[in-house]
Amino acid sequence: MNLEALIGELITLFMMAFALGMDAFSVGLGMGMIKLRLRQIFYIGLTIGLFHIWMPLAGMWIGKVLSGTFGHIASLAGGALLIILGVQMILASFKKDQESMITPVGFGLLFFALSVSLDSFSVGLTLGIYGARTLLTILMFGVVSMLLTWTGLLIGRRVQTWLGTYGEALGGSILLGFGLKLIFPM
What we know:
Blueprint: H1 3-32, H2 38-70, H3 72-94, H4 107-130, H5 134-156, H6 162-183
GO cellular component, one term: plasma membrane
Transmembrane segments: 6-29, 41-63, 69-94, 106-130, 136-156, 163-184
Family: Belongs to the MntP (TC 9.B.29) family.
């Protein structure tokens, strides 16, 4: 693989990781309003980062199995899945009743991390179908989501919640765009 193709793959993976991490960022903004300690913020970000590694890894493994079996049909299904996820994230950003009352400790933290990383399972499924580099993908997803979660939690301590809505809409738009690109290659 030449350098230009590698850089293109890195940029694409970063954009996807950023889109997936925006969900954690926007929820982190809301969670940051409950005045968490820095130690709690550290553990929340770390947990979400780990979930954003394991969920796409499982999805990629299943996607690789499916791609060998179903080929082009699986590619179209993966693109459709990204479009559905993107639209769902955009629509969810307009709903006002999405306040989370789960505290980010213990089982609540695990539930919180699972809920914001479920979409990375689906994206991992799509990337597995396309044969993306597994280690690079999961590390990019994990690190970016961890950093965005920390950023959201820290900013959430200082700003209003309006940014969370726009962050989730931005993430949904990016996933929607990638889904359209997979279904309608240029």
